[in-house]
Amino acid sequence: DVFRNTQAKLAEASERNMKFTIPILSLLLVHSQVNGQGRGQGRVQEHGQGIRIRNNVFPATDWLREAINNDGIDNAIEVKFKSTMTDEKIQKAVDKIKEKTRCPSANRVFSQVNKYDAKHREAGLHLFYRFDCTDVEKTDMEQMDRKLDLNQKGSKAVMAILNLEEETDNDINDDNKFGIVAVNPSFSIVSVGDSPNLRGLQSSPPVNDPRFGTQPHYNTVNLPQAWDILTAKGAWSRAQDVVVQVLDTGKNPNHEDLQTNKWKNPGEICGNGLDDDGNGYVDDCHGYNHADGTGTDLQGGGDHGTHCTGTVAADTDNEKGVAGVCGGRGSSPGASIMTSVGFGATATRGFEDALEYGADNGARISSNSWGFTQPLSEATWANMATKAAIDYATENGVIVVFAAGNDNSDASYYPGYYEKTVSVAAAGSGPSSLQAASYTNYGPWQNITAPGSNVYSTTGTSASSSYGYKSGTSMACPHIAGILALGVALSPLATNEELLNCLYSTAFYIERYSPGDMGAGMADAESFLECLEPPSTVSPAPTPTTSMAPSSAPSISNAPTAECINVQVSITTDYFYSETSYNLVDASNGEVVMSRNDYPNSYTTYTDSECLSCGDYTFTINDSWGDGICCSYGNGGYEVLVEGEAEARISGGEFGSSKSYLLELECTSQGTSQSPSQLPSMS
Q1: Count of alpha carbons within 13 Å of 211, Cβ hemisphere only?
Q2: Rounded to an integer, what distance in angstroms lies between the CA atom of residue 615 and that of residue 663?
Q3: Cβ–Cβ < 8 Å for 426, 604
Q4: What is the pLDDT of residue 398?
Q5: pLDDT tens digits, residue range 521-551?
Q6: What's the pLDDT tens digit per position in 348-401?
Q7: Exposure string (b/e) for 525-534, b if CB count within 10 Å is 16 or more?
Q8: How many CB atoms neighbour CB 151 within 10 A?
Q9: N or C: which terminus of the chain has fewer CB atoms within 10 Å of its end residue's CB?
Q10: Distances (CA, A) of 329 to 221, 258, 307, 317, 446
Q11: Kind of pairing, strands 650-652 and 243-248?
Q12: Which carries the bigger pLDDT value, residue 64 or residue 586?
């Protein structure tokens, strides 16, 4: 099973690359060590989460209480009915459940679409219902005396489950009464949100996007070389036929760099207020906002999805902004982005419907930078609508890619933990670009790794066309979705198994703590395409590659002149992010030329850069509590990189209140050459 077993590939990759081996979700739970090994093998958490009682129908009461305390569930419950239940019996059971739980409204998790109804029923999607308990009268529930704080998020869902649990086992199982297979709370869902690196930079930019120089993470996966392969094979003309669904917050509809690579629903007339193609959605010309219930407003809530969309397929070689992984070349467009919104402006919902929508409407790849806020047991996952949606998508030919999560854990964080997904772990940036990021989830259930730190892409809402850095496995996931899209464009007849075999077998092997815990390793787009189309069949690429041709300019593109040297400061915060600050001072006049003291999040890497004049500078890293940022409360750190140099000039993380260095920037024809000197520490 190519979706699940990468171990054979790992052995080969490890032997081939061993001499090079280098020894994303809310942080809501402190996870205990798990038992068992491997993806999807029912690893059970020691604190009992997901353990079931009563006919394997209801979750354990103590686990439900813990889930409330950790903000892991919403005020809704999800019920799966037995496959023997008719529509009439299901409706009667729904009414009984509403009466028993006091949850006033219920809807099918998957929308009823006449065009695809037989197909959906065959997959059992009609059996899932969600009951909204948000509007339950508080006094009504308090009469049950369950000793719950009904002001806490999720408490009404737990109360509803406990009320329903009072029914006898026979009644719960009886098709003429309830006919229930499983009851679960509705789990909370969240999105899971460089400097020169160790892989080869090209001597000149391969595309004309002016901000391409801020995307060195593409060199980590040998992306420019992969673009050359598509150019040489004339495959860019097929890229627009590859539909990539991005299920997230949506995208900025007015962004200057996201105007070309849009999926167009061939059966829909835009803006006429009708469901022209009969697929159950009105005006879904370029996708659908499942959270807010509209086909015309695909912005959703925030710009997380805009950033992910730009990584997959920002309009490329268009003399604007950034490049996308599969964004096109020359006059040829890139992959077609189907925008699906689960994080809306008014609600967070519709993820299952969206996955079903993508499968029904031609998506080949689905990019999902989201997940549940806590681990689940296999028993819980087995009867969830999200699993059914992924099963439906994969059975209909979609490669479903998920971010692994940002919890620095090997626990069972679904959906990425599920063996039918492609789970993507994240690597660091700069000198750490071939090492696991400090925040990434890891373990034998991972499939592949991609750049996730200091990823530069499109940002902003409908009022602006901006660009910026984000870090997380959320950023790694769209790299893999885009690389797979390149593979489909090159080899449109390749099966999903062939695509994934080539992706895994050509990865550059890395690990974190044990073999296989970062999947097959760092993706290599060039080798991936060569696996699909052997090098002997590829003509020499017409664009220039790295060469030793004499030049008065440095070999790295967009290098500064002798009067200006680019300096980049990267800070990775620990748990107490507000304690951290730095400043870079011109030693000749005392002027502060770079500084920052407003870090907004824990376990996140932030990068600033400036082009500085030659001379001496003092870099000082500060921690207001006095315990540094590396060791006690997370693996934070700092590094200062100078353009033209492969390794950080200054780096560390362990210090007291502050630590200072002298940074000497000497302008020569060969760039800077002198090392920094450490100044006495300030305590």
Answers
A1: 20
A2: 8
A3: no
A4: 98
A5: 999 999 999 999 876 444 444 443 333 333 3
A6: 999 999 999 999 999 999 999 999 988 998 989 999 999 999 999 999 999 999
A7: bbbbbbbbbe
A8: 8
A9: N
A10: 18, 15, 20, 6, 32
A11: unpaired
A12: 586
- pLDDT tens-digit map of 556-586: 233 333 357 889 999 988 878 888 999 999 9
pLDDT at 30: 22
Which 3 state secondary structure label does DSSP give 611? strand
Asked if pLDDT for residue 148 goes beyond 70, the answer is no
Residue given tokens 């022209």 in the structure block: 276
Gap between the Cα atoms of 309 and 474, Å rounded: 11
Q: Percentage of the chain with pLDDT > 70?
A: 80
Q: What's the pLDDT score for residue 429?
A: 84
Question: Token pair for residue 336?
Answer: 């077609």
Instruction: Extract the runs of DSSP E, i.e. beta strands, from 331-490.
Output: 332-333, 336-341, 365-368, 370-372, 399-403, 422-427, 448-451, 455-459, 466-470
Distances from the Cα of 305 to the Cαs of 87, 250, 401, 580, in angstroms? 37, 5, 15, 29
Q: 79 falls in which pLDDT band (50, 70, 90)?
A: very high
Handedness of CA 293, 295, 297, 303 (dihedral sign): positive
Residues 6+ apart with CB under 8 A from 145: none
Helices and strands, counts by H and E, the chain: 17, 29
pLDDT (mean) for 649-673:
77
Q: Report d(CA 281, CA 357) in Å as an integer.
A: 9
What is the token pair recorded at 300? Answer: 């959703």
Alpha-carbon gap, residue 426 to 424, rounded angstroms: 7
pLDDT at residue 163 in the model: 85
User: Lowest-confidence range among 107-116, 201-210, 402-411?
Assistant: 201-210
Model confidence pLDDT, tens digit, residues 270-308: 999 999 999 999 999 999 999 999 999 999 998 999 999
Residue 288, CA distances (Å) to 191, 245, 303 in order: 18, 11, 16
Burial of residue 391 (CB within 10 Å: 0-12, 13-18, 19+) is: middle
Measured distance CA(574)–CA(316) in Å, rounded: 36
Rounded to the nearest 5 percent, the helix, strand and coil shares of the chain are 25, 20, 50
Residue 61 CA to residue 253 CA, distance in Å, equals 45
- Cα Rg, the chain, nearest whole Å: 26
Minimal CA–CA distance to 383: which of 185, 106, 182? 182
Could you tell me which residues come within 8 angstroms of residue 186 by beta carbon, excluding any fewer than 6 positions away? 73, 74, 75, 76, 77, 78, 130, 157
Q: Which helix (H) or strand (E) holds 631?
A: none
- What residues form DSSP beta bridges with 508? 522
Per the listing, tokens 């950080």 go with 648
Q: Distance between terminal CA atoms of the chain?
A: 57
CA–CA separation, 452 vs 441, rounded Å? 12
Q: What is Dmax (Cα atoms) for the chain? A: 85
Residue 569 CA to chain centroid, in angstroms? 24
Alpha helices in 165-203 (DSSP H): 169-173
